[in-house]
Inverse folding.
């Protein structure tokens, strides 16, 4: 199946200029074009894009993503190094996630306090 830049834009919420930038910078592989010169994305490019989005959305710097992608193009000799990059990033994401969950728990506790205070003022809300 083939997708236009507009299809990809809608699917992932990424602007066309960002997609073109990713291609220009080598973050995405060279995208094939149709007879009219328009970019045509295939499943393999969408898989690349999904990985880039996941890495970016979890806080990996674009420069690090570029380095990782460049290593992929180098082939099997970089597998260990790529694995190390992803493991370190995974640990960073897990640490941030744990901290976010701790913060969320504090927020939930504060909301509970406010819920109790509001219900004391409006006891009729107990029977809704």
């Amino acid at each position: 199946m083939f997708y236009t830049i507009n299809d990809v834009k809608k699917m992932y919420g990424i602007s066309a200029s960002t997609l073109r930038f990713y291609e220009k910078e080598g973050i995405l592989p060279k995208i094939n074009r149709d007879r009219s010169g328009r970019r045509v994305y295939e499943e393999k490019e969408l898989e690349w894009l999904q990985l880039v989005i996941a890495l970016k959305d979890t806080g990996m710097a674009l420069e690090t993503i570029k380095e990782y992608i460049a290593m992929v193009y180098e082939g099997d000799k970089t597998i260990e190094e790529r694995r190390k990059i992803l493991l370190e990033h995974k640990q960073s994401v897990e640490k941030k996630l744990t901290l976010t969950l701790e913060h969320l728990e504090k927020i939930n506790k504060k909301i509970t306090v406010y819920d109790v205070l509001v219900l004391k003022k409006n006891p009729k809300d107990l029977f809704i």
Observations:
- Strands lie at 32-33, 39-40.
- The first strand starts at residue 32 and ends at 33.
- The helical segments are 5-12, 16-24, 43-57, 62-74, 79-121.
- The chain is about 70% helix and 5% strand.
